[in-house]
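Appendix C reproduces, verbatim, an entry submitted by the partner laboratory led by Prof. M.T., so that reviewers can inspect both the input and the predicted structure.
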Amino acid sequence: MNLTIKTMASAATILGLFSLLGIGLVTLVHHATESRIAENQRLTMLNSLQNLIPTGTYDNDMLADVMVISDSSLGPKSITVHRARHFGKPVAAVFSTIAPDGYGGDIHLLVGVKADGGILGVRVLEHKETPGLGDFIDETKSNWILGFNGLFLGNPPEKQWKVKRDGGVFDQFTGATITPRAVVKAVRNTLDYFNNHRNALFTLSPPSDDD
């Protein structure tokens, strides 16, 4: 009987050690994977920013020089604004805007706006629009999104920042008006916010208590 109890105790100890080892390995793999995912996301964002703002036109770290803002016109959540500067002077602001009224849900955008209010470019980061219809907002599917380059509020006139079906100047897609309508609205709202908050957007954030 004592031998059986000792055997069971030994087995339980061994199982416990294997369990602890397994938990340790899972934790280690999780941390390693989490770090890689974070680094991949950082590099993807940096590549997206540099796709809008060419290297050499700014000299700051746009991934660090950010401002988090919350405004219902820019989407249902707080968004990040990456700021580009050259010798401390504002070059551009890149908004991680959300168009909440896409056909398939939220459309995540990057909207680059020069310090003078002109659009550097617009890119779609994430969407769930219908393949073959709404996904033409994706640069890899068509050049529609490139049509925003160089525009600003006033060119076209504010009232014409709509798709053609709504009396504006922007093309819609055959069988998919909701998607381009949502993107045009989001870009226009971003420009409107930029024009109303231009100075505040480029104000350096105050130092934290830890500085």
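The two ends are 66 Å apart (CA to CA). Additional entries are available on request from the coordinating office.
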